Amino acid sequence: MSYGRREYLIHLLTEAAEIEHNLLCSYLYAAFSLKRENGANTREQRALDGWRKTIMGVAIEEMGHLALVNNLLVAVGGAAHFDRPNLPVAPGYHPAGFVVRLLPLTKSTLDHFIYLERPVDACIPDGRDYRARAAVKRTLTPGHLTASTPDYDTIGEFYAEIREALVAFADASGPAAFLDTADRQCAVDMPGVIAIRNLADALAALDTIVEQGEGSSSEKGNCHYARFRAMRDEWSELEKLNPRFVPSHPAAHDPVMRRPSAEVERVWVTNPPAARLLDLGNALYGFTLVLLQQAYAIGTPQRRRAGLADAAMSLMRGLSDIGHALVQVPAVDGGEVNAGLSFAVPRNLRSASPDGALWLERLDELAAGAKQLRLGRVIAAIADARRAVSPETEVVG
């Protein structure tokens, strides 16, 4: 590998961060789309409540995976990575068979989740709305200085490549492999999230990601794959009792804030009530990423890092409320398709001044937007985030 083992490992981990981030958004969108009551019978509503809890639980674990991958990046000399392409991801950006879209929970969506989380030895088809067009497989070019990622069929296969690269890197680099960056890593209170100081920590982090569901060599009892398969089995039973059972609102397939080009199929959200909600939702999401990026930044005092992570989690609570609201509002005035959160990534995930003045400025702007829409719970979430990053708030890092 002429490009160097460290460079290759950072390249792989950066793609892993994008995959974890993409999965997180896809799962949240599906969870937001689920109906609440709306005439469903008791058994169906219990199922929907359970499915929402299941998908949100998986999404929370994906947040933990994203934190672990970023801890790994920082530990080996890279930078935390919260950027990614806007959704849906263009064909060819990820491996040939890896499709990322925003769709409500349908049978096709659930089949896609099962497909993504499948064990490496499972041969199952993707959901019909996700089947990839023919794409050129990625290949490594020996002798290049520029790192590139090989193609892979499953997420588990990809993490096996990361594991192999990590061990080879540690063997070749010795004590210089892992930097003394534990104080710059995120220590959110999630199962399995640890600071990375050495190879043992790094391998434990990879084991957590794989065992929780992304590509284990065989099905584990409570992994993501098993949980999604249990949902599909329950869905089949509910359909036997009610062939017209539909669990989700008619949320948009791949919603966008701005007019899309004629070459792609997107739902352009133009209905003013939905457009205003979407604008605020994307602004909250974008600033959440800014706060997380800052939590890893050099120069951020250690005592502030926990506050930044807490603030990001508070904004996610507000984002959840907006996500659930959007799927119940028509995307176009008088239309039959509803809106949905598009998770637009800001062009610049900058690191702001460590004194926090710019964080408070932006949070005040977001609060003003929430007040205009009279979103009390979102206002409260932003207020919690403001307290978490306020210079007057002492945070133990």
How would you explain this protein's 3D organization?
The chain has helices spanning 5-33, 42-75, 107-116, 155-173, 199-211, 224-241, 272-295, 302-326, 357-372, 376-389, and strands at residues 255-256, 267-268. It is globular. The two termini are 39 Å apart. Strands 1-2 form a two-stranded parallel ribbon. The chain folds into two domains: 1-248, Up-down Bundle (Ferritin); 250-397, Ferritin. With 397 residues, the chain is mainly alpha-helical. The model has no long low-confidence stretch (mean pLDDT 88). Helices cover 51% and strands 1% of the residues.
Task: Summarize it.
This protein has 397 residues and is mainly alpha-helical. The protein contains 10 helices and 2 strands; from the N terminus they run ααααααββαααα. The longest helix has 34 residues, at 42-75.
Count of DSSP helices? 10
CATH class of the largest domain: Mainly Alpha
The rounded Rg comes to 21 Å
The CATH architecture of the largest domain can be given as: Up-down Bundle
